[in-house]
Write a structure and sequence with these properties.
By secondary structure, the chain is of the alpha+beta class. Helices cover 17% and strands 38% of the residues. The strands form two sheets. Strands 1-3-2 form a three-stranded antiparallel beta sheet. It has a two-stranded antiparallel ribbon with strand order 4-5. The protein is globular and about 35 Å long.
Length: 84
Amino acid sequence: MNIFKERRIGTFELDQETIRRNYRLLFKLFAKVIVTSAGSEFPTDPVKYVGYSELFAPVGEGGTPPRYRVSYNRRKREWEATPA
């Protein structure tokens, strides 16, 4: 699978509390996402990410990257992305 050729691009947000409390689990998420952009307006705002991942569905040429909700499935012990 080539996530770039297939245009598996998406956006997602993580709130500051999730980042602080679950930073070790986030290593597993970011092992699956190549982040191309990240930022927030204020230190208390969620961080908005844009990136490529096998977790995301392919986007057609010229299409807008869809927004996803990412969550950790403790039973499966893996990150999942669902359309927001």
